[in-house]
Amino acid sequence: xxxxxxxxxxxxxxxxxxxxxxxxxxxxxxxxxxxxxxxxxxxxxxxxxxxxxxxxxxxxxxxxxxxxxxxxxxxxxxxxxxxxxxxxxxxxxxxxxxxxxxxxxxxxxxxxxxxxxxxxxxxxxxxxxxxxxxxxxxxxxxxxxxxxxxxxxxxxxxxxxxxxxxxxxxxxxxxxxxxxxxxxxxxxxxxxxxxxxxxxxxxxxxxxxxxxxxxxxxxxxxxxxxxxxxxxxxxxxxxxxxxxxxxxxxxxxxxxxxxxxxxxxxxxxxxxxxxxxxxxxxxxxxxxxxxxxxxxxxxxxxxxxxxxxxxxx
Length: 313
What we know:
eight-stranded parallel sheet; about 10% strand; 14 helices; alpha/beta; about 325 residues; globular; 4-hydroxy-tetrahydrodipicolinate synthase; TIM Barrel
């Protein structure tokens, strides 16, 4: 168990595929290195952006093991446990993911209990998962699929006070909700990571720990800089970086995650294919032109970022 996870950019790591949609393991290694080299505080693999619902359980576990091995302790790694079975099955799934060596196993809030099931049922199942996996750290991800379940403030407080949770990915898109949740986490191991780039600085000023969202997948260096310098860099510069990251995230929103892979193939040294299982539509020159142009524009601005700052030291 770790005392706490580091603040900063936590990409929801994409899963590279070959043309036949098998996992491209060499590209997994390259993407892992690239995320770390560009300032990521940690890596969230086996998330929705990584097409977790379109991977088999064996692939999810193999992917987590591969990323853990490649990071070699350089940054922490977390991964989702993807099971919507009964409490015993969910506990087994979480234990299998923990055995890959990840630093925390992330539970999907909307898989723990069904849409019609109560918070009491949800809490009981989570407690069973904790009890059957002693010594394992956990996280919560408010994944929008199969439906979005936002745990109540009382449940957030319970998770924080349990001492077993270290990561919370908020998708409420409400600064007031973020502030209330951060308040009940204070003094515990649980940290809040915002999924929404447009409210990142507001959440950081409220005591949030960073960002875990699309923007960190394509510009971890700029998200990392923003997380570190939101309160000591010139205010206009901070606002400009956040606004540009917000636009960048919107640019890749269509046909995501293939669009993010296409973007990276033109904005970085990565040669990741724009191939996905989740949304298998191809990206041709017409759909790709805005991605290429924005990638070039973003790079031309010479914005401060974690990679450039580190290189200047």
